Amino acid sequence: MLFKRYFSLVTFIIIPCFLVHAQNQVTVTDVINKIKSNVTCNWADVTVDNIKAGDEQTKVTGIATTFMATLEVLQKAKAAGCNFVISHEPTFYNHNDDLTLHKGDPVQEAKLKFIKDNNMVVWRFHDHLHQTNPDQVYEGVLTKLDWKKYQSNGHFLKFPAKSLKNIVTEIEQKLNAKTVRVVGNPDMVISNVGLALGASGSNSHFKLLSSPDCELLIVGESNEWETVPYVQDAITIGQKKALIVLGHADSEEAGMDYTRTWLQKFYPNLKVKFIEAGNPYWRN
Ligand SMILES: [Zn+2]
Questions:
Q1: Ligand 1 centre from 200 Cα, in Å?
Q2: How far is the CA of 49 from the centre of ligand 1 (A)?
Q3: Along the chain (284 residues), what's the average pLDDT of each consecutive run of 10 residues?
Q4: Domain 136-250 belongs to what architecture?
Q5: What is the Å distance from ligand 1's center to 118 Cα?
Q6: What is residue 10's predicted lDDT score, i.e. its pLDDT?
Q7: How much distance in Å is there from the Cα of 9 to the middle of ligand 1?
Q8: Predicted local confidence at residue 17, as pLDDT
Q9: Residue 150 Cα to ligand 1 middle (Å)
Q10: From ligand 1's centre to the CA of 256, what distance in Å?
């Protein structure tokens, strides 16, 4: 009887306390290693997915996932009790987060100081987030748009016939996207869509656009002197083409919300939050 009581005390109080305590001891390195061992792709030797600021041995109080670790996002993460920020895009204004480019600049210095003063760590999860299966950005964005049911082949979608105008409205509502830009006839009826979220580059745009399975190309951002005039000329020679430029943030942000749910599964007792960086543009 006494043994039974002792056993239940150990099982129901001491062991769970120990487990919670053990989870509280998770370091940034532990989380990064957990991610490395759970993506489906090989971890590349050369990658931008590394620590941008802070100490890798820092004990994690909470994880914040975000599209872009702006200073405002870092402040929100701190207020939410998350000292480990996982950002999809760079922190210091260039792809490789080369700190020498803005060395001594008050903007960069203020950000570095905030991270240091608050014992925070920023790590980038970009290359492998796209390379793992499923690509977490596409998974998150297609889920938010409720378009997974339209996925056909690779980055192509097969819609029930919809007008370009209605597709734009649907995107604006579901992604809360306020600065969508469109090329093409608003009344054009579309079934075949190509997706190139983020800044995937003109070559990937051309590859999608050259397919008959792409009447409408939806991109995050594009060079206005490459993809855009190609679509204009395609329309002029009578091809059925259109282009939606979502903006980088609106085209990828939902992916980091997906990453949050993915990470939470590994750390059910740790605070894991998604902090929206948001689309910074506005219009009247
Ligand atoms: Zn991306």
A1: 8
A2: 12
A3: 47 46 78 98 98 98 98 98 98 98 98 98 98 97 97 93 98 96 98 96 96 95 96 97 97 98 98 97 92
A4: 3-Layer(aba) Sandwich (3.40)
A5: 27
A6: 46
A7: 48
A8: 44
A9: 21
A10: 10
Token output for 82: 């998350």
Rg (CA), the chain: 22
The per-residue pLDDT for 24 is 55
For domain 26-133, give the fold.
3.40.1390
Task: Return the half-sphere exposure (C-beta side, CA atoms, 13 A cut-off) of residue 280.
Answer: 9
Long-range Cβ contacts of 30-35 (<8 Å, 24+ apart): 30/60, 31/60, 31/63, 31/84, 31/263, 31/267, 32/56, 32/123, 34/266, 34/267, 35/125, 35/128, 35/263
Q: How many other C-beta atoms are found inside a 10 Å radius of the C-beta of residue 155?
A: 21
Q: Is 233 exposed, middle or buried (CB count within 10 Å of its CB: 0-12, 13-18, 19+)?
A: exposed
Give the Å distances, CA to CA, from 132 to 12, 89, 128, 172: 38, 17, 6, 28
Q: How far is the CA of 126 from the centre of ligand 1 (A)?
A: 6
